[in-house]
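Input record (Table S2, row 341):
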Amino acid sequence: FTIHTQIVSDSCPSNIALIKYWGKYENQIPANPSISYTLNHCKTNTSMEFLADEPFSVQTFLAGNEEVKFAEKIEKYFKNIEEYLPWILKGKYIIRTENTFPHSSGIASSASGFGAIAKCLMKLDGIFSNELSEEESLRKASFLARLGSGSACRSLYNGLVVWGTSDEVEGSSDLFAVQYPDAEIHDIFKNFNDWVLLIHEGQKSVSSTVGHGLMNTNPYAERRFQEARENFVPMKEILKNGDMERFIKLVEHEALTLHAMMMMSDPAFILMKTGTMEVINKVWDFRREAGLPLFFTLDAGANVHLLFPNNGSEDQIKTFIETELLQHTQKNGVVKDVMTF
Ligand code: PMV
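Output record (PMV complex):
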């Protein structure tokens, strides 16, 4: 039977890594395992119209505006995943996508974007062919999202999510992400704030694709990959026993190591801005003086993700952020997200 036109839609959140993925091999195989929190509010909503009678082509609209560059990227991606979805090149796609977080905010939209596209593709696959269970379908969506943008594969699952083979996490794989076992997570980590300070709008000077590539010639790369693997040992203990002090130390170390790797690349590059450094120093001062669990992580960009537990005693932290840290952002920009599961 033939289905001429199908429209499917889905949405997918962004995620923020605690142990970072930076460096990869052929076919989007990560050089080390990573673990992230999936956000609740920062999402991409995508609708995908598939016109089966047309020759293969892709048209994309971001927030209503046609984006030719993005369409080219998706076309290439679809060709790349044909071996896993044999029907994929047999029609025309009109893809409409919008983010719930501000455009050009620098919040990773590739993770939520590819996550949403992979979910839409699995919905079409469900219509055309597959007999996969819900669980298998989700795993395949994670597998497909990985081939679009590595970190996207983690966005398919809620809560804490691991991508990359780790001896510490049963069932973990380089090919898709898995949810970190709920029973192994202390309650303190199941309700956490992530307030993203928008330090700098506009394009990053170096894309993450180029950044990953520079790890191939970075003399510290192997040591870094080893360290990330090793960091799963304390992370596992911390997540189980709720040791906030060790958690903070580990998460900040991971963020700074990511950026240190960039500085030690050849050519070197720096994605932090003055505001990033100012905020980090103020967070450290605040923690020393107030003794409250406010800490940060960074993505491949200048924005600062401010992390703190959401357990009813965070008023002082919120006031501090609003009175002392917002001034370091562009246009008082902050996106307030939370991770609850
Ligand atoms: O998924 P990519 O290729 O955009 O890589 C992103 C990597 C970091 O965001 C810097 C770290 C991570 O693990 O998400």
